[in-house]
Design a protein that fits this description.
Keywords: Transferase. This is glutathione transferase. There is one protein chain. It contains nine helices and four strands, in the order E-H-E-H-E-E-H-H-H-H-H-H-H. It has about 220 residues and is α+β, with helices and mostly antiparallel strands. Strands 2-1-3-4 form a four-stranded mixed β-sheet, covered by helices on one side. The structure holds S-Hydroxy-Glutathione (GS8).
């Protein structure tokens, strides 16, 4: 079986989400680097893989996918024989809870955390610009409200979807990993269950491996 190809960059949050899934299931894969500064992601070859001109994209034979959360589910389903079950599709209630917390990640957590990371890390490091403090401050307020909900949830179950590690937990990794190298990492200190959850998931071998390819390693 030919290895699946991932077009992206290990430093990219959405690429890292997919790489984590591939590492968790122990899949063989080929990471094809996309040259963002030269605009390769907006060229015809990559637009054929991802019509939004973004990374990542996955190619598995004739199948071409974009959107990191959808790609992640594909990878976990394709390699379910690995014994790593991060979707719990054999159990209606558990799989529904995985979906609930995956939606919370993309609709609540991500919109709050990503502007903080973008302004305080990407703007100065990648573009040599000055962070917009007003955006950071308002996003921090939003993030605190989300973290209050997470704290309540994680005081009742070890992981977000229940007492099992799932794609819902994994999906939070890339942006949180970057928040932790900004001056705003201390926001987690007020949420002890969230902090313990973060320490637990970052101790996984797949996380250590993918993390090593990201900024600030
Ligand atoms: C977002 C992809 C994205 O923003 C997904 O795959 O989950 N919802 C999509 N990709 C960024 C890199 S950060 O990982 C990207 O390609 N940015 C360049 C651009 O938008 O031009």
């Amino acid at each position: 079986m030919a290895a699946v190809k991932i077009y992206g960059k290990p430093i990219s949050t959405c690429t890292a989400r997919v790489l984590l899934c591939l590492e968790e299931v122990g899949a063989e894969y080929q990471l094809v680097s996309i040259n963002m500064p030269s605009g390769e992601h907006k060229g015809p070859a990559h637009l054929a893989r991802n019509p939004f001109g973004q990374i990542p994209a996955l190619e598995d034979g004739d199948l071409v996918l974009f959107e990191s959360r959808a790609i992640s589910k594909y990878v976990l389903r394709k390699y379910k024989e690995s014994g790593t079950d991060l979707l719990k599709e054999g159990n209606l209630a558990e799989s529904a809870m995985v979906e609930v917390w995956l939606e919370a990640e993309s609709q609540q957590y991500n919109p709050a955390i990503s502007p903080i990371v973008y302004q305080s890390l990407i703007v100065p490091k990648m573009y040599g610009g000055t962070p917009d403090q007003a955006i950071i401050d308002s996003s921090l307020e939003k993030l605190k409200k989300v973290l209050e909900v997470y704290e309540a949830r994680l005081s009742k179950s070890k992981y977000l979807a229940g007492n099992f590690f799932s794609l819902a937990d994994l999906s939070h990794f890339p942006f949180t990993r970057y928040l932790m190298i900004t001056p705003y990492a201390s926001v987690f200190e007020s949420y002890p269950h969230v902090k313990a959850w973060w320490e637990d998931i970052t101790s996984r071998p797949a996380f250590k491996k993918v993390s090593a390819g990201m900024l600030g390693s």
